[in-house]
Amino acid sequence: MSRILLVAVLGALALAAPARPAQTIVSIQFDDGRGQAAVGPILARHHIPATFFVNTGYIGTADYFSWAELRALAAQGHEIAGHTLTHRDLASLSPAEQMREICGDRAALIAHGFRPADFAYPFGSYTKATERIVQRCGYSYGRAAWGLWGSGCEEEPATCPYAVDPASLGDPWAIPTADAPIDLTYVENQRQVVRNAIAHGGGWVQFFFHRVCPDDCDEYSWTPASLDAFSTWLDQQRSAGALDVRTMRDVLHPAFHEKVDAPAPPAPPRGPNRLRNASLERRAKGAAAPTCWEHQGAGTWSRVRGSHGRAEAVTIAGAPDAFAALAIPQDQGECSPAVRPGQRLVVSAAYRSLDRPRFVVWTRSKAGGWSFWRQGPPLAGSRGFRRAAWALPRVPRGVTALSVGLSLAGDGRLAADDLALAPA
């Protein structure tokens, strides 16, 4: 056979040979660090590495991982990554408060010996400004909460890929994922997302989960049996050479950057009243609640004439078990007043209600997490605005700030105005 003929034959064989399929990579991820005690043994049984995006403000509290448990997961090859201090909706916060949540969370991880380089947005909520803050805080990549086939984008196939090309991410600060499974999501749904990626040329598919519990503990939960079944299938597919399973870190190999400090909170208001916008008069354009206040729980809110200027009013109808409150946001200092352990404070407000409203108080820990502290006694009914006050117990040890407000439980009406938190 001549040299020319041999080259021609080899070329024809090369063209006729089937193309080697692109590799499919699956990443398993868990958000929040809450209700996931069953996860580690399941992953270990199937040799699956995962990424845990945690809210460090709650580490060590009820139902959350402890720092020791996170270190044990890292020692097993899992990645520990950032998810903000307290899981707030970042797109609703000021740039400075976003930095406190994002940079503060990353600083806490670094202080406990981790090297976080990847970040996931709580609720999948972010803006381009948020992406820049994530980068500024030292992260190398950001993960969204949807965007791949199976996350609700199927009606727009041009913008709904089956997988991501790790070498060409598009926006590295909002990498798309499959949708988070809920308590009614079948294991087969997750398998099909992977099959579709394989059938369409491979690529990178990220799955993220929340609580893993056997008793339907949350809408965004999956059972240990479902996670085990999906992990078993992934392990089988990996053994067959159809895919690989890696952490986000092992897919992207991100650079590690040193800690970036969050900005300090603004100085407290002048005078004895520690609350900002105590009169409720300031309100950003289009905002649902006055500046430095938020509507919590259920009910229908409105603006009404108050004791001085305007007041906030809520109505609960046909929901005897509902709860509503006007309260200071549980933030990292932009609105919540800083306090010291041992202080004695009095919370007061003008209110109008015949339905036994109460003062309510939450505390912030040194780690930045919030928890309910206590509620006051029912207030006397009043058809017109009247002032009430409640002397709080001494501020407990470890508490750095308070969120106070007025609440309504069950059907009824409440209007609130001119709140105050001052030394006793």
Features:
29% strand, 424 residues, alpha/beta, 20 strands
Please describe what this structure looks like:
The chain has helices spanning 3-16, 39-45, 67-75, 95-111, 128-136, 187-199, 224-239, 248-252, and strands spanning 24-32, 50-54, 79-82, 118-120, 141-147, 175-177, 203-209, 211-212, 221-222, 244-245, 294-297, 300-305, 310-316, 323-327, 345-353, 358-365, 370-375, 382-391, 399-409, 412-423. It is of the alpha/beta class. It contains 8 helices and 20 strands. It is 21% helix and 29% strand.
User: Looking at the structure, what is the overall shape?
Assistant: elongated
Mean pLDDT: 93
- Percent of residues in helices comes to 10-25%
The radius of gyration computed from the alpha-carbon positions, rounded to a whole number of angstroms, is 26 Å
Strand proportion, as a percent range, falls in 25-35%
What is shown here, in short?
The chain is built from 8 helices and 20 strands.
Map the helices and strands:
Blueprint: H1 3-16, E1 24-32, H2 39-45, E2 50-54, H3 67-75, E3 79-82, H4 95-111, E4 118-120, H5 128-136, E5 141-147, E6 175-177, H6 187-199, E7 203-209, E8 211-212, E9 221-222, H7 224-239, E10 244-245, H8 248-252, E11 294-297, E12 300-305, E13 310-316, E14 323-327, E15 345-353, E16 358-365, E17 370-375, E18 382-391, E19 399-409, E20 412-423
Parallel strand pairs: 1-2, 1-7, 1-10, 2-3, 4-5, 5-6, 8-9
Antiparallel strand pairs: 11-14, 12-13, 13-20, 14-19, 15-18, 15-20, 16-17, 16-19
Helix pairs in contact: 4-5, 6-7
